[in-house]
Amino acid sequence: MIERQILDHASACYPEESCGFVIATANGQHYMPCVNIADVPTEHFEISPDDWLRAYTAGEIIALVHSHPDGLPVLSATDREIQRRTDLDWWLVCDGSLYQYRNIVPLLGRDFKHGVMDCYTLFRDAYHLAGINMPEFSRSEDWWEAGQDLYIDNMAATGFYQVENPEAGDIILICLGSHKANHAAIYCGDQQVLHHCPNRMSKRDVYNGYWLKYTHSIWRHKAWLSCGFTAIYNDMAASSI
Which domain range does residue 30 map to? Predict the structure, then answer.
């Protein structure tokens, strides 16, 4: 019901961007359409202070909604920067479909905490922004030393297949101080990777030297879209806005 209302509102606003809120009340969730007051509503959206107040007084805001008429089904760098300010999930309409994006921590500059904010968290969150939802799973400290092979056991099962040469968005598995593939990096193109090493902040690195030497394998998701890395790049670009 809510999804149909959101899609109908976006269609009625075309070619301008639609906007609104998903609100939770004692009677359930409902969609609150808003008027886009941006100066150039075909390229941007802006919600009036009155509509923000109306949403806050109506119940709990579950998500902010807007559309990308004739655009990509991913959040732009500006979208990601403003999403962090609003501290809300953002839902996006594009090409007649609805995409739901959690308000994840920025991909760059994360503090490391194994099992909570680590290389798999970065991998999972980056793929979420690209429209592919990876499962969460429990992982103990130094699982690779306890006879487990979590990455290799799960890559094919979650839609990945192995390739020889990396393209932007591919996952590179690396043997980090182990004979097992225990570290994941996202290939960014131009011999760069995005990854999160233990006891360091998440960052981009040049894919050579140690990382290249101890590469275990390279994986590509069967549902990967050409615009997928645009979503990841937009998040990194948002860190500089």
Answer: 2-101
